[in-house]
Amino acid sequence: MAEGGIDLNNTKKMTIICTKGTLDWAYPPFILGTTAAAMDVEVTMFFTFYGLGLLNKKLDLKVSPLGNPAMEMPMMGMHMGMPNMVGMLPGVTSGATAMMKNMIKKKGVASIEELREAAVLSDVRMIACQMTLDLFEMKKEDMIDDIEIGGAATWMESALQSDINLYM
């Protein structure tokens, strides 16, 4: 590292802020992060607010159709949308989650647990937000190994040197 924080070895770097904890929002950061790592990009993922739950040892991720009018699922040979109001009805979140999990399994898509393990094996740096841990009274012991605890300044150290910064 040269004076002024310039990376002399020209390693590409990427940071991702993960703020969502639903099944559908868990895929983009892990897919992009593991893909970048496979392409020799140095990846840092910062998990904050609801995204912090993606680091829990035990995951029970759900899909919420509420507030997601673009959600269409392949059914009966076509793509069927769900009116946004239907998401408020009891059981709709469970039904949408079951449908999504079945579709993921049927299509052979990796699970979030598998993608998360791939991130660990690919040396993706995963930072759990200390403020969010405190705010939501969560414990590091409930989370996977191979993560670090840090705050916004910890993420900023990586972000300031990164070629790509994503917010999800």
From TrEMBL:
Spans traversing the lipid bilayer:
30-52
Q: Does the keyword Transmembrane apply?
A: yes
Gene3D superfamilies attached here? Answer: DsrEFH-like (3.40.1260.10)
The UniProt keyword set, sorted, is:
Membrane, Transmembrane, Transmembrane helix
Q: Which domain of life is it from?
A: Bacteria
Task: From the Swiss-Prot or TrEMBL record, give the protein name.
Answer: DsrE/DsrF/DrsH-like family protein
